[in-house]
Design brief:
Elements (H helix, E strand, L loop, with lengths): L20 E3 H8 L6 H8 L12 E3 H9 L6 H7 L6 H8 L3 H9 L9 E2 L13 E2 L2 H9 L26 H13 L1
Antiparallel strand pairs: 1-2, 3-4
Length: 185
């Protein structure tokens, strides 16, 4: 019996009407959300509009990328690579072979091996927004090919374990035992 393989159509980047400006419709298409969700995204990420019109708001592409993804594109090639629509868990499931429920469970249990998703919708305290999770296609494709993951936001450096402050002790016996343990290791 032949096996069925899910067909995933090739992705096309969002075509911007203006080279460095994104409209609300383009922002909705890029985030893959409805037009009614865009105001929540604007306020959640603190995007500043370039125009005063409430109906046809425009935003700088660099600011959108910096605030939503955490990466500022350096040239036109990077902008084009980042303009592919953010993808939902179903697309990630089709590309990786993992089920949507296992992807969501791995996120909730903090054991996800895939690149981290972007939460495009605000979440309530103590809850995760499974419907608001989106992934960068370039990151998932690199993960599948075992290539270095592109466009990762810079993380804060970890503190050096040797530079920890020495703990304060309540008595001399604790201090002596601590010093002996450091010398013997």
């Amino acid at each position: 019996m032949p096996t069925l393989v899910a067909y995933t159509p090739p992705l096309d980047p969002i075509e911007l009407r203006f080279p460095i400006v994104m409209t609300t419709a383009e922002l909705a298409a890029w985030c893959q959300v409805g037009k009614n969700t865009v105001p929540y995204i604007i306020s959640y990420f603190g995007l500043k509009e370039l125009s005063g019109a409430a109906k046809n708001q425009r935003f700088g592409v660099h600011e959108v990328m910096r605030k939503i993804i955490g990466v500022t594109p350096l040239d036109d090639a990077e902008i084009k690579a980042l303009l592919y629509p953010l993808q939902k868990a179903t697309w990630v499931s089709e590309r990786t072979g993992l089920s949507v429920s296992s992807i969501n469970a791995a996120i909730c249990e903090n054991r996800l091996l895939l690149p981290a998703p972007i939460e495009v919708t605000p979440t309530q305290t103590g809850r995760t927004a499974a419907r608001g999770r989106r992934w960068l296609p370039a990151q998932i494709e690199a993960y599948i090919r075992s290539d270095p993951i592109p466009f990762q936001a810079k993380r804060a450096p970890r503190p050096d374990p040797k530079s920890r402050l020495k703990p304060t002790f309540r008595n001399a016996f604790e201090a002596i035992c601590s010093d002996n343990a450091e010398v013997s290791s």
